[in-house]
Amino acid sequence: xxxxxxxxxxxxxxxxxxxxxxxxxxxxxxxxxxxxxxxxxxxxxxxxxxxxxxxxxxxxxxxxxxxxxxxxxxxxxxxxxxxxxxxxxxxxxxxxxxxxxxxxxxxxxxxxxxxxxxxxxxxxxxxxxxxxxxxxxxxxxxxxxxxxxxxxxxxxxxxxxxx
Length: 163
Hints:
Distance between the termini: 58 Å
Largest sheet: 4 strands, antiparallel
Mean pLDDT: 78
Radius of gyration: 17 Å
Number of strands: 8
Helix content: 10-25%
C-alpha cells in the first residue's frame, strides 16, 4: 500500500538523531537550514522512487536475516521492533539540541520527519553508520545553531602518508 504523502506540499521538515547514553537512548531534533531541508526532501524522493522501481514488492523485515545495502522491507506497526520508529513518528515537542552532533560516536540513528499540506506525516529513519563518516569528514558544518551543507570544494585524503 503506497503511503498517502505529498512530498510537493511538505512544509515541515525536521531532522533529528538518536543518541546512546549511559542511562538509555534518547531522540532529539537538530536545527537545519533550508538547503539541508531541500537535501532531505530529495533523499526521500529518491528513496521513494527506488522503492517503486524495486523488482520485488516489500518483504517483511526479519531480524535474523542479513540484508543488502538497499532492500525494500516493511515492518508491521504491531511488531515490538517498530517501537522506536513509532516513538519518533508520534513524538510531540522533541527537544531541539544544536550540540547533539558534537560526539558522533554516540549517534546510533538519524531521522527526518515531514508533514504535508493535508496533515499526513512521513518519518524516515536510518542507522547512523554512513552519517558518522559524513560528520567526521566535516561535510556538514555549524556556523549558527543550524546544520548546514558545506558549499566549498572538499579534498580528502583517504590514507595516511609519511612526509
